[in-house]
Amino acid sequence: MAEPLLLPSEPSDRMVAVMKDRGLPRRLSTPPVSPTHRIMNLRPRLLRFAASIGGLFVLPTAVVSQTPTLLVELESGPAWQSYNDVEIPNDGTATRFSLSELAGAGPWPAGRLTLTWNRSERHGLALLLAPFSLTEEGVPAHPLRFAGADYLEGEPASATYKFNSYRLSYRYRWRETERTTARVGFTAKVRDARIALEQGDTTSRKDDLGFVPLLHLSGAWRFTPEWRLSAELDALAGGPGRAADLSVKLGRKLGERWSVQGGYRMVEGGADVSEVYAFAWLHYAVISVSWTPVSPRAPD
Description:
Layout: H1 13-22, H2 35-54, H3 61-64, E1 70-87, E2 97-98, H4 99-103, E3 108-118, E4 123-130, E5 133-138, E6 144-146, E7 149-151, E8 157-176, E9 180-199, E10 202-221, E11 227-238, E12 241-253, E13 258-272, E14 277-291
Antiparallel strand pairs: 1-2, 1-3, 1-14, 3-4, 4-8, 5-8, 6-7, 8-9, 9-10, 10-11, 11-12, 12-13, 13-14
Protein backbone atom coordinates (compact mmCIF):
# COMPACT_ATOMS: atom_id res chain seq x y z
CA MET A 1 0.00 0.00 0.00
CA ALA A 2 1.42 3.38 -1.01
CA GLU A 3 2.20 5.97 1.65
CA PRO A 4 -0.12 9.02 1.71
CA LEU A 5 1.18 12.22 0.23
CA LEU A 6 1.46 15.44 2.20
CA LEU A 7 0.28 18.03 -0.31
CA PRO A 8 0.50 21.78 -0.25
CA SER A 9 -2.64 23.88 -0.83
CA GLU A 10 -1.59 24.46 -4.51
CA PRO A 11 0.08 21.27 -5.92
CA SER A 12 2.68 21.50 -8.71
CA ASP A 13 2.15 20.09 -12.22
CA ARG A 14 4.15 16.96 -11.33
CA MET A 15 2.01 16.41 -8.25
CA VAL A 16 -1.13 16.89 -10.33
CA ALA A 17 0.03 14.18 -12.72
CA VAL A 18 0.78 11.79 -9.83
CA MET A 19 -2.57 12.50 -8.23
CA LYS A 20 -4.37 11.92 -11.54
CA ASP A 21 -2.47 8.65 -12.01
CA ARG A 22 -3.47 7.49 -8.52
CA GLY A 23 -7.08 8.60 -8.92
CA LEU A 24 -6.84 11.38 -6.33
CA PRO A 25 -8.73 14.71 -6.66
CA ARG A 26 -6.69 17.79 -7.57
CA ARG A 27 -7.74 19.59 -4.32
CA LEU A 28 -8.05 17.94 -0.98
CA SER A 29 -10.46 19.29 1.65
CA THR A 30 -9.12 20.25 5.07
CA PRO A 31 -8.76 17.17 7.27
CA PRO A 32 -11.70 16.91 9.71
CA VAL A 33 -11.07 18.14 13.24
CA SER A 34 -11.57 15.55 15.96
CA PRO A 35 -14.29 16.11 18.61
CA THR A 36 -11.65 16.21 21.32
CA HIS A 37 -9.82 18.97 19.51
CA ARG A 38 -13.03 20.97 19.10
CA ILE A 39 -13.80 20.70 22.80
CA MET A 40 -10.28 21.79 23.74
CA ASN A 41 -10.67 24.87 21.53
CA LEU A 42 -14.09 25.75 23.02
CA ARG A 43 -13.12 25.25 26.68
CA PRO A 44 -11.54 28.71 27.22
CA ARG A 45 -14.63 30.36 25.71
CA LEU A 46 -16.99 28.30 27.86
CA LEU A 47 -15.02 29.14 30.99
CA ARG A 48 -15.14 32.85 30.20
CA PHE A 49 -18.90 32.66 29.54
CA ALA A 50 -19.57 30.73 32.77
CA ALA A 51 -17.55 33.23 34.77
CA SER A 52 -19.49 36.14 33.33
CA ILE A 53 -22.86 34.50 34.13
CA GLY A 54 -21.77 33.46 37.60
CA GLY A 55 -20.75 37.00 38.37
CA LEU A 56 -24.38 38.05 38.10
CA PHE A 57 -25.29 35.94 41.12
CA VAL A 58 -22.38 36.80 43.39
CA LEU A 59 -22.75 39.84 45.67
CA PRO A 60 -19.80 42.20 45.58
CA THR A 61 -17.64 42.14 48.66
CA ALA A 62 -18.63 45.70 49.47
CA VAL A 63 -22.30 44.69 49.67
CA VAL A 64 -21.79 41.71 51.97
CA SER A 65 -19.63 43.70 54.36
CA GLN A 66 -22.47 46.19 54.87
CA THR A 67 -24.53 43.76 57.00
CA PRO A 68 -23.33 43.36 60.60
CA THR A 69 -24.63 40.43 62.65
CA LEU A 70 -25.30 42.61 65.71
CA LEU A 71 -25.91 46.35 65.80
CA VAL A 72 -26.60 48.68 68.74
CA GLU A 73 -27.96 52.18 68.03
CA LEU A 74 -28.54 54.89 70.62
CA GLU A 75 -30.60 57.86 69.42
CA SER A 76 -31.29 61.16 71.20
CA GLY A 77 -32.57 64.64 70.49
CA PRO A 78 -35.25 67.24 71.27
CA ALA A 79 -38.94 66.65 70.53
CA TRP A 80 -41.77 69.08 69.75
CA GLN A 81 -45.51 68.59 69.29
CA SER A 82 -47.59 70.15 66.52
CA TYR A 83 -50.91 69.05 67.96
CA ASN A 84 -52.15 66.86 70.78
CA ASP A 85 -55.95 66.78 70.90
CA VAL A 86 -57.74 64.91 73.70
CA GLU A 87 -61.28 64.00 74.73
CA ILE A 88 -61.76 61.37 77.47
CA PRO A 89 -64.22 59.72 77.42
CA ASN A 90 -65.24 60.19 73.80
CA ASP A 91 -68.98 60.08 74.38
CA GLY A 92 -70.02 63.73 74.48
CA THR A 93 -69.72 64.12 78.27
CA ALA A 94 -66.11 65.39 78.24
CA THR A 95 -64.34 68.43 76.75
CA ARG A 96 -62.22 68.10 73.64
CA PHE A 97 -59.18 70.28 74.23
CA SER A 98 -55.62 70.83 73.00
CA LEU A 99 -52.98 69.41 75.28
CA SER A 100 -50.34 71.15 73.15
CA GLU A 101 -51.90 74.55 73.95
CA LEU A 102 -52.05 73.71 77.65
CA ALA A 103 -48.56 72.18 77.95
CA GLY A 104 -46.80 74.06 75.16
CA ALA A 105 -45.04 72.95 72.00
CA GLY A 106 -41.73 71.91 73.59
CA PRO A 107 -38.96 71.01 73.19
CA TRP A 108 -38.46 68.04 75.53
CA PRO A 109 -35.62 65.49 75.64
CA ALA A 110 -36.26 62.17 73.92
CA GLY A 111 -34.27 59.05 73.16
CA ARG A 112 -34.49 55.47 72.02
CA LEU A 113 -32.37 52.32 71.93
CA THR A 114 -32.44 49.81 69.07
CA LEU A 115 -30.81 46.35 69.14
CA THR A 116 -30.63 44.62 65.74
CA TRP A 117 -29.73 40.98 65.10
CA ASN A 118 -29.28 39.90 61.48
CA ARG A 119 -29.44 36.12 61.73
CA SER A 120 -28.65 35.83 58.02
CA GLU A 121 -28.13 38.07 55.02
CA ARG A 122 -31.90 38.28 54.41
CA HIS A 123 -33.56 37.83 57.81
CA GLY A 124 -33.24 40.09 60.83
CA LEU A 125 -34.89 41.11 64.12
CA ALA A 126 -34.88 44.53 65.77
CA LEU A 127 -35.86 45.35 69.36
CA LEU A 128 -36.78 48.99 70.08
CA LEU A 129 -37.15 50.76 73.43
CA ALA A 130 -38.54 54.30 72.98
CA PRO A 131 -39.77 56.01 76.17
CA PHE A 132 -41.21 59.52 76.01
CA SER A 133 -43.02 61.70 78.55
CA LEU A 134 -43.62 65.35 79.36
CA THR A 135 -45.12 67.24 82.31
CA GLU A 136 -45.85 70.94 81.98
CA GLU A 137 -47.96 73.52 83.76
CA GLY A 138 -50.43 75.71 81.91
CA VAL A 139 -53.62 77.72 82.42
CA PRO A 140 -56.84 76.42 80.82
CA ALA A 141 -58.49 79.03 78.62
CA HIS A 142 -61.93 77.55 79.32
CA PRO A 143 -63.46 75.04 81.75
CA LEU A 144 -62.43 71.42 81.10
CA ARG A 145 -64.06 68.15 81.93
CA PHE A 146 -61.56 65.32 81.62
CA ALA A 147 -61.79 61.70 82.76
CA GLY A 148 -64.67 62.41 85.15
CA ALA A 149 -63.18 65.54 86.78
CA ASP A 150 -63.80 69.26 86.24
CA TYR A 151 -61.03 71.84 85.85
CA LEU A 152 -61.46 75.60 86.18
CA GLU A 153 -60.41 78.13 83.60
CA GLY A 154 -57.81 80.69 84.59
CA GLU A 155 -56.25 78.47 87.28
CA PRO A 156 -52.82 76.78 86.81
CA ALA A 157 -53.04 73.09 85.94
CA SER A 158 -50.40 70.42 85.42
CA ALA A 159 -50.60 68.28 82.29
CA THR A 160 -48.77 64.97 81.82
CA TYR A 161 -48.43 63.08 78.54
CA LYS A 162 -46.62 59.73 78.40
CA PHE A 163 -46.19 57.55 75.35
CA ASN A 164 -43.68 54.72 75.77
CA SER A 165 -43.23 52.45 72.78
CA TYR A 166 -41.69 48.95 72.82
CA ARG A 167 -41.40 47.10 69.52
CA LEU A 168 -40.09 43.88 68.03
CA SER A 169 -39.67 43.97 64.23
CA TYR A 170 -39.00 41.22 61.71
CA ARG A 171 -37.25 42.53 58.60
CA TYR A 172 -36.73 40.71 55.30
CA ARG A 173 -34.15 42.06 52.87
CA TRP A 174 -35.81 41.79 49.46
CA ARG A 175 -33.36 43.94 47.49
CA GLU A 176 -29.60 44.46 47.73
CA THR A 177 -27.20 46.12 45.31
CA GLU A 178 -23.78 47.65 45.75
CA ARG A 179 -25.39 50.98 46.67
CA THR A 180 -28.95 50.24 47.86
CA THR A 181 -30.75 48.06 50.40
CA ALA A 182 -34.51 47.61 50.86
CA ARG A 183 -36.32 45.68 53.60
CA VAL A 184 -39.94 44.86 54.35
CA GLY A 185 -41.48 43.22 57.40
CA PHE A 186 -43.85 43.65 60.30
CA THR A 187 -43.64 45.11 63.81
CA ALA A 188 -45.29 44.05 67.05
CA LYS A 189 -45.72 47.22 69.12
CA VAL A 190 -46.69 47.56 72.77
CA ARG A 191 -47.72 51.08 73.80
CA ASP A 192 -47.73 52.30 77.39
CA ALA A 193 -49.60 55.62 77.40
CA ARG A 194 -50.97 58.04 79.99
CA ILE A 195 -52.72 61.42 79.89
CA ALA A 196 -53.26 63.16 83.24
CA LEU A 197 -54.39 66.53 84.56
CA GLU A 198 -53.97 68.00 88.05
CA GLN A 199 -55.30 71.27 89.46
CA GLY A 200 -55.10 71.75 93.20
CA ASP A 201 -56.81 68.77 94.83
CA THR A 202 -58.46 67.73 91.57
CA THR A 203 -56.73 65.06 89.52
CA SER A 204 -57.73 62.53 86.88
CA ARG A 205 -55.95 60.42 84.31
CA LYS A 206 -56.35 57.84 81.57
CA ASP A 207 -53.88 54.94 81.23
CA ASP A 208 -53.67 52.75 78.16
CA LEU A 209 -51.60 49.62 77.65
CA GLY A 210 -52.16 47.89 74.32
CA PHE A 211 -50.78 45.97 71.36
CA VAL A 212 -50.58 47.38 67.82
CA PRO A 213 -49.40 45.49 64.68
CA LEU A 214 -47.49 47.65 62.20
CA LEU A 215 -46.04 47.34 58.70
CA HIS A 216 -42.28 47.84 58.54
CA LEU A 217 -40.39 49.38 55.59
CA SER A 218 -36.75 50.47 55.57
CA GLY A 219 -34.02 51.21 53.08
CA ALA A 220 -30.62 52.79 52.56
CA TRP A 221 -28.68 54.42 49.73
CA ARG A 222 -24.86 54.32 49.99
CA PHE A 223 -23.79 57.15 47.69
CA THR A 224 -20.14 56.81 48.80
CA PRO A 225 -18.33 54.06 50.74
CA GLU A 226 -18.55 56.19 53.91
CA TRP A 227 -21.82 58.11 53.50
CA ARG A 228 -25.40 56.80 53.35
CA LEU A 229 -28.97 58.07 53.38
CA SER A 230 -31.46 55.84 55.22
CA ALA A 231 -35.21 55.86 55.84
CA GLU A 232 -37.41 53.74 58.11
CA LEU A 233 -41.18 53.50 58.60
CA ASP A 234 -43.46 51.63 61.00
CA ALA A 235 -47.07 52.41 60.16
CA LEU A 236 -50.71 51.34 60.34
CA ALA A 237 -53.83 53.07 59.02
CA GLY A 238 -57.46 52.06 59.06
CA GLY A 239 -60.28 51.40 61.48
CA PRO A 240 -60.61 53.69 64.50
CA GLY A 241 -56.99 54.82 64.58
CA ARG A 242 -53.65 55.16 62.89
CA ALA A 243 -49.94 55.17 63.74
CA ALA A 244 -46.80 56.22 61.90
CA ASP A 245 -43.15 56.46 62.93
CA LEU A 246 -40.98 57.78 60.10
CA SER A 247 -37.30 58.71 60.14
CA VAL A 248 -34.85 60.00 57.52
CA LYS A 249 -31.15 60.10 58.43
CA LEU A 250 -27.80 60.94 56.90
CA GLY A 251 -25.04 58.69 58.22
CA ARG A 252 -21.28 58.32 58.05
CA LYS A 253 -19.08 55.34 58.85
CA LEU A 254 -16.27 55.87 61.34
CA GLY A 255 -14.50 52.58 60.77
CA GLU A 256 -15.54 48.93 60.86
CA ARG A 257 -17.54 49.17 64.10
CA TRP A 258 -18.77 52.75 64.55
CA SER A 259 -21.04 55.11 62.63
CA VAL A 260 -22.99 58.31 63.34
CA GLN A 261 -26.33 59.47 61.92
CA GLY A 262 -28.39 62.63 62.08
CA GLY A 263 -31.77 63.63 60.74
CA TYR A 264 -35.50 63.98 61.32
CA ARG A 265 -38.14 61.73 62.91
CA MET A 266 -41.90 62.14 63.23
CA VAL A 267 -44.43 60.14 65.23
CA GLU A 268 -48.12 60.66 64.46
CA GLY A 269 -51.29 58.84 65.33
CA GLY A 270 -54.00 58.13 67.82
CA ALA A 271 -57.39 56.51 68.34
CA ASP A 272 -61.02 57.54 68.01
CA VAL A 273 -63.07 55.09 70.09
CA SER A 274 -65.76 55.42 72.74
CA GLU A 275 -63.28 55.45 75.63
CA VAL A 276 -60.81 57.93 74.21
CA TYR A 277 -60.20 60.44 71.46
CA ALA A 278 -56.49 61.27 71.29
CA PHE A 279 -54.34 62.25 68.32
CA ALA A 280 -50.82 63.67 68.53
CA TRP A 281 -48.07 64.67 66.10
CA LEU A 282 -44.50 64.77 67.45
CA HIS A 283 -41.32 65.90 65.68
CA TYR A 284 -37.74 65.01 66.59
CA ALA A 285 -34.34 66.37 65.57
CA VAL A 286 -32.20 63.30 66.14
CA ILE A 287 -28.57 62.24 66.29
CA SER A 288 -27.55 58.64 66.87
CA VAL A 289 -24.45 56.52 67.33
CA SER A 290 -24.26 52.92 66.09
CA TRP A 291 -21.83 50.24 67.17
CA THR A 292 -21.34 46.64 66.11
CA PRO A 293 -19.44 44.39 68.57
CA VAL A 294 -18.43 41.83 65.92
CA SER A 295 -17.11 41.97 62.38
CA PRO A 296 -19.60 42.06 59.51
CA ARG A 297 -21.03 38.63 58.72
CA ALA A 298 -19.79 36.52 55.84
CA PRO A 299 -22.16 35.55 53.00
CA ASP A 300 -24.44 32.54 53.53
